[in-house]
Amino acid sequence: MPEMRQNPVNGQWVVIAAERAMRPQDFPATREEPRVSDCPFCGGREEETPPEIWAYRQAGTDRDAPGWWVRTVPNKYPALVPDGILAEHNEGVYSRMTGIGAHEVIIETPRHQVHFHEHPVGQVEEIIRMWRDRYCDLARDYRIKYIQVFKNHGREGGASIEHTHCQLIATPVVPKSVMDEVVHGIERYRQTTGRCVFCDMMVQEQAAQDRLVLEAEHFLAFCPFASRFPFETWILPKHHKTDFGAISEDEIKSLAWILRETFTRLAQVLNNPPYNLILHSSPVNIPWDPGYHWHLEILPRLTRVAGFEMGTDYYINPTPPEMAAKILRETIEDLGPSH
Amino acid sequence: MPEMRQNPVNGQWVVIAAERAMRPQDFPATREEPRVSDCPFCGGREEETPPEIWAYRQAGTDRDAPGWWVRTVPNKYPALVPDGILAEHNEGVYSRMTGIGAHEVIIETPRHQVHFHEHPVGQVEEIIRMWRDRYCDLARDYRIKYIQVFKNHGREGGASIEHTHCQLIATPVVPKSVMDEVVHGIERYRQTTGRCVFCDMMVQEQAAQDRLVLEAEHFLAFCPFASRFPFETWILPKHHKTDFGAISEDEIKSLAWILRETFTRLAQVLNNPPYNLILHSSPVNIPWDPGYHWHLEILPRLTRVAGFEMGTDYYINPTPPEMAAKILRETIEDLGPSH
Q1: With B177 labelled, which of A179, A200, A314, B12 sits at a CA distance of 20 to 30 A?
Q2: Which of B195, B234, B310, B319 should be substituted to probe chain A, the one whose Cβ sees the most A Cβ atoms within 10 Å?
Q3: How many inter-chain contacts (A to B, CB under 8 Å) are there?
Q4: Using one digit for the tens of pLDDT, what is the confidence trace for B215-229?
Q5: Catalytic residue among B165, B218, B280, B293
Q6: Is A163 annotated in some ligand binding site?
Q7: What is A3-28+112-330's CATH number, 1.10.3720.10, 3.30.1240.10, 3.30.428.10, 3.40.50.11030?
Q8: Which residues form the Galactose-1-phosphate uridyl transferase C-terminal domain (chains A, B) (predicted)?
């Protein structure tokens, strides 16, 4: 019989269709043909992007010129823009607001490379430092209330450019789904127990073991109990940390290792699947402490978000997370000592 | 500058990226190759589906034999199943529940036909009658709390079988997104104004005119103010109706006309796009009156639900609904008199 499971943080249900128990080889192939080599993100073609916002580059090299190893530019087709007045306007039952915020692209390497896990681990650290730098810079703008770092990979993951990159969108309103997690999940649980629901979740995962994927010095990777997608994997700081922007150098090294190792295993097991990588962190510039526990969510996109999911926010997942975690644990990769 | 708009019912925001103003020809082609002709939904192959639950068929013909014109069967890979005990079980921070419910497939015609709008209008009426019959039958099961009728069309819409069909999933828990609409949207608005937010929305749409698509005797079709998807279209009963299951014969005729006409126009304008059609109705078997206003939502799937949407529940829509509605209004189809 199928089983329903509830996400303890936001209250959403998933259906674990364990009868189907889809293993990696049961999903249709998602291998993609390489796209045009005409790539505006490659080193030497800096003039084809909007002027850079921030780059890690060799001393003495010019802005918007070669010599960088991680480079952030505005999205050419921004969802939200930094210049203008933030103004809300009501019209009968409707509210509208000027689209103030930011939409940036973080180009992870000047080489035309497609997959995140092909970066050396030191490069992954630099990418995480860039997330942190851009996050902290945008958080200084009082108009910004939430900063979403994310990565779309592969066609089914929504990537329109093949060259490996992440994005960052800063919004002037805390998204409803984030408020739901913060108010209904974190706050309600804390009022009842005095503890953080994510911290308790990790205690339980470490005792049960069956959904664990990897452990590093500062981070834990596991397939969540109420996984919406096959092989969904979360990476959480082992100690309670509210704000991604406050990540330490030690934590960056630890995160780089576990993130690269997780993606290596997902790529090996699922043949370079399409996915979304999503940062969940606290709202910024709000006059109260949400007590959130920041984390990363990796959502492989091997199943479709269709009518049922859009209508009910239930997800149907044909791969039990215990099976996914076991497969990911048993995929041996020797990437050197963990951090 | 992009504009943010809020859905007055559930509080979610969308970004209307009006600079891009994507018109129908700007979207990548979604035309699909016909798939295998080996179709288990075609008339004459009834033994290839699970035994039928209900069918409209010629007098004297047998169950699971030819002679039907609309036929409902269990989904071969059900998300939820009707037989078993509904039991919830807690385990530390987690809750799980047996997957009790129903998952049915409504085969809209015995002919191998791909598109909904190719049905004669009388056939559309029969399909709506089948929705109602199955809806009312399942609502009699006290374990069922929500009934989701939906249709996935095209690969990007999540359809795995080409032969035109809808689905119905009945769940033992009211989905969180439905509770959000009912409690936060409907109930809060009613406490403030004494009125239904959907009714007030229609008054405003009929005054403004610029998002209207079509009007029938009992229904209004318009592109919603906070459209998440390009050419998103909602169809609402013009008078306050809580429960889809109570739809009248007159309303069925009117809905069949406006639904078929809307799909004809979408198919013409967007070259048979992939889409989801989703019924939103009241929860069932709950001890209070949610005062919902049932309606249908058509979501063309020309843009991707990716990392930003998954992380924030903001949607980015490159086609302003006023532009979409104008294009749909001006596409002239002569389908006979409206109902």
Answers
A1: A200
A2: B310
A3: 224
A4: 999 999 999 999 999
A5: B165
A6: yes
A7: 3.30.428.10
A8: 187-304
Dihedral of CA atoms B38, B41, B43, B45 in degrees, nearest 10, equals 60
Residue A226 and residue A213: Cα distance in Å, rounded?
A: 15
Residues of A annotated catalytic, as ranges: 165
* DSSP label at residue B46: G
pLDDT at B216: 97
List chain B residues with CB under 8 Å of A93.
Answer: 8, 189, 197, 200-201, 204
- For B109, phi then psi, to 5°, come to -165, 150
Chain B residues with CB under 8 Å of A152 CB are 304, 306-307
Nearest CA in chain A to B10: A176
Helix (H, G, I), strand (E, B) or coil at B299: strand
Residues with Cβ within 8 Å of residue B151, at least 6 apart in sequence = A307, B116, B165, B166, B167, B275, B276, B277
Instruction: Pick the residue from chain B with its C-alpha nearest to A154.
Output: B306
Q: HSE-up of A7 (CA within 13 Å, CB side)?
A: 23
User: How confident is the model over A141-199, as pLDDT tens digits?
Assistant: 999 999 999 999 999 999 989 999 999 999 999 999 999 888 778 988 999 999 999 99
Listed in sequence order, the residues at least 6 apart from B179 whose beta carbon sits closer than 8 Å to its beta carbon are B283
DSSP state of A117: G
Per the annotation, does A42 bind a ligand? yes
In angstroms, the CA B101 to CA A336 distance is: 48
Q: Is A39 annotated as a binding residue?
A: yes
The predicted structure's pLDDT at residue A31 = 64
In angstroms, rounded to a whole number, what is the distance separating the alpha carbons of residues A29 and B67? 39
Q: Are A54 and A107 in contact (CB under 8 A)?
A: no
Q: What would the two tokens of residue B297 be?
A: 């939502």
- Mean pLDDT within A215-228: 97
Chain A closest-CA separation from residue B162 CA (Å): 15
According to CATH, the topology of domain B3-27+39-84+94-330 is: HIT family, subunit A (3.30.428)
What is the model's pLDDT at position A338? 55
Say if the Cβ atoms of A99 and B3 lie within 8 Å: yes
Check the CA dihedral A129-A134-A136-A137 and report its sign: positive
Residue in B8, B79, B151 closest to A17 by CB: B79
The DSSP element (H or E) to which A103 belongs, if any, is strand A102-107
CB spacing of A305 vs B177 below 8 angstroms: no
| 3-state per-residue secondary structure call for B57-121 | ECCCCCCCCCCEEEEEEECCCCCCECCCCCCEEEECCEEEEECECEEEEEECCCCCCCCHHHCCH
Residue B39, helix vs strand vs coil: coil
Nearest to B312 among A148, A313, A314 (CB): A148
ipTM: 0.93
Smallest Cβ–Cβ distance between B148 and the set A6, A278, A308 belongs to: A308
B115 is an active site residue: no
Facing B306 at nearest CB: one of A80, A94, A157: A157
Distance from C-alpha of B267 to C-alpha of B335, rounded to nearest angstrom:
14
Query: CA A254 to CA A84: how far, in whole Å?
Result: 39
DSSP structure string for A194-248? SS-HHHHHHHHHHHH-TTEEEE-SSEEEE--TT-SSTT-EEEEESS----GGG--
* Residue A83 CB burial class (10 angstroms; 0-12, 13-18, ≥19): exposed
CA–CA min distance A99, chain B (Å): 4
pLDDT bracket for residue B36 (50, 70, 90): low
pLDDT at position A22: 84
Spatial distance between the Cα atoms of A108 and A73, rounded to a whole number of angstroms: 11
